[in-house]
Design goal:
322 residues, alpha/beta, 6-stranded mixed β-sheet, 12 helices, 14% strand, elongated, RpnA, Rpn family recombination-promoting nuclease/putative transposase
């Protein structure tokens, strides 16, 4: 997000760009000046096993300006040719696991052409960072393992899920390197300043995010990214809500039509059962009045609408009194 970094609903100091914004995250770590910081952060996840990183896709602001909903992932290769893909996830996904596997598979298969041998394939490490995941642990690692004996099928697949903690109930001195990075991502300016005193890497990170925040173009593009994503989420929710309402309305209309045409209890029940079950009170009243106009017996209307005779009669009387 591109709001003032906050903690306990209080604002400290000047505005800083939010590193949880995936545009800011990628802009920050794809800057060549910050390659050492990227290596420091990645090693906090992978246990210090990486010696060097080479970016595959540096930040392209012109491409982003055209497609504000493009995936803001960060890709790099290690000194061994292994690929690492990092993504700051801002949206909820009902098929999160499948998406991660599909994306990993795409990266893995893209390493070779149809004429290349499988032996040229290198390890691909997928790192996903989010505060929207249903995972309690800060860091979870997933691989292909035989469940009974715990045998590793292949070292080539490795997915790391990093959950941004809302709070850490421990002093800075007791935190590991990854926990400090995550707190740096989430914390406000005051917290960032405290973490910056822990090592030269965090101090450098604090200075770089300050510089990035003072760049007008970066600030504008980061804000545009947030707005585009929020608009996209809202459109999806609106479409889902509209689709549900239309589906209920159509189901009821079709059910009533089928019921009227057949004019029999069994036919009506089958035609409108699904719509009636999902309908709201106003729709149920409309159904009762429609059936009454079709001269269906009161007993049958009660049964189909799942209402008492008194409730049905009240609906009919209320219309008569209007």
């Amino acid at each position: 997000m591109v709001t003032v970094v906050k903690e306990d609903m209080e604002v400290y100091g000047s505005e800083l760009l939010e590193l949880r914004n995936d545009f800011v995250f990628k802009s920050f770590f794809t800057d060549e000046r910050n390659n050492r910081l990227l290596l420091h952060f990645v090693n906090s996840i992978l246990g210090g096993t990486i010696k060097s990183l080479q970016l595959i896709d540096p930040m392209n602001t012109k491409k982003y300006a055209v497609d504000k909903l493009s995936i803001m992932d960060l890709r790099a290769t290690t000194e061994l040719g292994e690929q690492i893909n990092i993504e700051m996830q801002l949206e909820r996904h009902t098929a999160f696991n499948e998406r991660m596997l599909y994306y990993w598979a795409s990266l893995y298969s893209s390493q070779i052409k149809s004429t290349d041998p499988y032996g040229q394939l290198k390890k691909v490490i997928q790192i996903i960072i989010s505060d929207l995941l249903p995972i309690k642990d800060i860091h979870s690692t997933f691989q292909i393992i035989e469940p009974k004996k715990g045998l590793l099928f292949s070292k080539h697949l490795e997915i790391h899920v990093i959950q941004l903690p809302k709070e850490l109930q421990k002093p800075l001195d007791d935190m590991n390197t990854l926990e400090k990075w995550l707190l740096f991502f989430r914390g406000n300016q005051k917290m960032k300043e405290e973490i910056a005193m822990e090592s030269s890497a965090y101090k450098e990170a604090f200075e770089e995010i300050r510089k990035l925040s003072m760049d007008p173009e970066t600030f504008h593009l980061a804000l545009s990214r947030e707005i585009a994503l929020r608009d996209h989420i809202q459109r999806m929710e609106d479409a889902e809500k509209l689709g549900l309402e239309k589906g209920i309305e159509r189901g009821i209309e079709q059910g009533i039509q089928q019921g009227v045409e057949k004019g029999r209890e069994i036919g009506i029940a089958k035609g409108i059962e699904q719509g009636i079950e999902q309908g709201k009170e106003q729709t149920k009243k409309a159904f009762v009045l429609k059936m009454h106009d079709e001269s269906l017996p009161l007993e049958l209307i009660c049964k189909l609408a799942d209402l008492t005779a008194e409730q049905v009669q009240n609906i009919i009387d209320n219309r008569a009194n209007q």
